[in-house]
Amino acid sequence: MKAQFVTLPGDGIGPEVAAEAVRVLGAVADRYDHDFKFEEHLIGGAAIDATGEPLAQATVEACRRADAVILGAVGGPRWDDPTSPVRPEQGLLGIRRQLGLFANLRPIIVFPELASASPLRPELVAGVDILFFRELTGGIYFGDSGTDENSAFQVMRYTNEEVERIVRVAAEAARQRGGKLTMVDKANVLEPSRLWRRLAGELVAAEYPDLDYEVVLADAMAMYLLSRPVDFDVVVTSNLFGDMLTDEASMLTGSLGMLPSASIGSDGPGLYEPVHGSAPDIAGTGVANPLATILASAMALRHSLGLEIEAAAVEAAVASTLTAGLRTADIAGGGPSVGTVEMAEAVIASLG
User: Is the CATH number of domain 1-104+259-352 3.40.718.10?
Assistant: First the structure.
């Protein structure tokens, strides 16, 4: 297979972890006789420094021509002024919107070897395998906003189409997994959540009556993720709640450095990135965990290229590397650790 990747390394540790994901994808291409091409572009703070804007139109066009996009991370203290009209995060929000990426998939999987790395008791997180679907291009992050001398406002707005398409994608995934779908809202106080509750309930009843469907309030879900995380299979929710809950759920695995994500739309390329941020405090030190970005590249193989065997091989190589005892500093628990490059090399070696 021939495939074109665009890489958006970004800021902080982004270039370091993105480089290792590219190396893994190159090894996959060699092993399975594929022809993968890589084209690098700027985003975030690096793009602001070079061009004055966080996302150039040329970068958008390059991404549209690609089969998949690999992103590192954006942001850092150099651009950390919330009052600035130009911020790195605008690049990330912009590329999601420009590519029509409405569904953000965040798998929360606790590798058995890392159960002790979680701040929760190992027996509580054993067997956790949750797939979150976060609506990505609607809601309060994209609503009308403004400030005056005495107040500020941000509007949360959802359309029927925005709700139904993300619920349908999540329901399809639930049907292929354990058959359970959880919808998270705040319908007791928020009007948009009442829309979510009505539309999701109607859609599931009409099209997916075979699913075990439940509704959980967002604040209760925050508690349940810590008290009984193994009870959940597929979870679908809005942009704001999905952002918060998946960051909380990341601690089940012990480190943000283990969590990949995929942002997909109805067609066109998907965007694949680690859940973690740019971690400027460790940028350039060679200790960042590349596994989240490597696992994100496996999601690219699966969701954008349809290469299930290759995706599973990368995931198996990560598991094998962990079984062999290799740990980066964030998951080492104070024990011996390896660096970014060494961890990626071990994964490549495990690919065979």
Answer: yes
CATH class of 129-251: alpha beta
Equal CATH topology for 1-104+259-352 and 129-251: no
Domains of the chain, residue spans? 1-104+259-352, 129-251
Burial class (CB in 10 A: 0-12, 13-18, 19+), 342: middle
Going by C-alpha positions, the residue among 292, 330, 259 that lies closest to residue 107 is 259
Alpha-carbon gap, residue 60 to 101, rounded angstroms: 13
Q: Within a 10 A sphere around the Cβ of 24, how many other Cβ atoms?
A: 24
Show which residues are catalytic. Answer: 141, 186, 219, 243, 247
Report mean pLDDT in 10-residue bins for the chain, 352 residues: 98 98 98 98 97 97 98 94 88 93 96 88 94 95 93 97 97 96 98 98 98 98 97 97 92 89 94 95 97 98 97 97 95 92 98 84
